[in-house]
Design brief:
The protein has helices at about 1-20, 20-35, 40-45, 65-75; strands spanning about 45-55, 60-65, 85, 90-95, 100-110, 110-125, 130-140. By secondary structure, it is of the alpha+beta class.
């Protein structure tokens, strides 16, 4: 039983710990998000990561989340709810210690398109590797 649990834990977070460059970290972040792997998300982000969201519609609403709030939100999702953030394209600027990605996306809940928009992600190269430090996104609902 212990070996089985260890194998599951190892496979769940392995893509997060193997991410070595900014592109791999971004890919691992969305793999973790889509599988609701809060442990991997904690590995891939700085502890004080911030998220700002612009909800687009008749008016623009701005909201923000801390890393803790974001991860708690993922943890609290019912098991039967599936989420999938499909990245449409990727544009990046990468320097020695800083990387920024612009990522148009579509977000699905239980297989149905919920909203779409653009993510802008900033990564920092830390002593423990590349980490997501900031996310800003737009959300256009249907």
């Amino acid at each position: 039983m212990f070996k089985f649990i260890l194998v599951i834990f190892s496979s769940v977070t392995s893509f997060a710990t193997l991410a070595q460059n900014p592109d791999e970290v971004v890919n691992a972040f969305f793999e973790a998000l889509n599988s609701k792997d809060h442990e991997a998300l904690e590995i891939l982000t700085v502890h004080d990561m911030k998220i700002h969201s612009l909800k687009l519609g008749d008016s623009v609403t701005i909201s923000s989340q801390t890393a803790k709030e974001f991860i708690e939100g993922i943890k609290s999702m019912p098991e039967e709810v599936t989420i999938f953030e499909k990245i449409i394209d990727s544009d990046s600027i990468i320097s020695e210690h800083l990387a920024q990605f612009t990522l148009p996306y579509e977000f699905y809940v239980n297989g149905k398109l919920s909203h779409r928009g653009t993510n802008v992600m900033t990564l920092l190269k830390t002593k423990s590797g590349w980490k997501v430090s900031y996310v800003a996104d737009t959300r256009e609902s249907f």
